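We were asked to recover a plausible sequence for a given structure. The inputs and outputs are reproduced exactly as logged, with field labels preserved.

PROBLEM: sequence recovery
POSITIONS: 169
GIVEN STRUCTURE:
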């Protein structure tokens, strides 16, 4: 199914599922775009007291995709999926994490999410999440909220990084 832009007039009357998926795809692209043109050091730079960095946000978003579209749907444990036990740990960067590797992992997770959700309807209930049974509609809406929040964080961090770069030049 080709992705439509949420701002394309065709999206205004598209089925709800297509509208939700269009907004989700837009937020996924926006989060990745926050890394465009940054150095490895800039992407790892901590500008707030928490573990939040631009690279860490994308790594965390990979975790989130796997929690909601793998763990929740397949009921596989996080250890089998290969993700941390807690959201906080998902921000941790290893020396091997690079912009390219984290970007690639995120793209793979997003594609896996699309494939996992494809056969399910918005009212289908999945039971692999710790909260208990949830309809796919709720999972999609939660993902939109989560990614919108992190896109906002990413915008602010990127703005700070680019401002610092301009001050040095």
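RECOVERED SEQUENCE:
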């Amino acid at each position: 199914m080709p992705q439509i832009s949420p701002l394309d007039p065709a999206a205004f009357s598209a089925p709800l599922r297509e509208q939700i998926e269009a907004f989700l795809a837009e937020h996924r692209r926006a989060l990745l775009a926050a890394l465009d043109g940054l150095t490895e050091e800039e992407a790892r730079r901590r500008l707030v007291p928490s573990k939040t960095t631009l690279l860490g946000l994308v790594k965390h978003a990979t975790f989130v995709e796997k929690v909601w579209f793998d763990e929740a749907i397949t009921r596989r444990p996080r250890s089998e999926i290969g993700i941390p036990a807690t959201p906080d740990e998902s921000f941790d960067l290893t020396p091997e994490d690079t912009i390219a590797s984290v970007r690639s992992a995120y793209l793979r997770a997003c594609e896996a999410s699309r494939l996992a959700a494809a056969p399910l309807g918005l009212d289908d209930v999945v039971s692999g999440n710790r909260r208990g049974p949830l309809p796919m509609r709720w999972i999609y809406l939660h993902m939109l909220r989560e990614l919108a929040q992190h896109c906002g964080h990413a915008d602010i961090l990127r703005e700070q990084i680019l401002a610092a770069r301009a001050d040095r030049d």
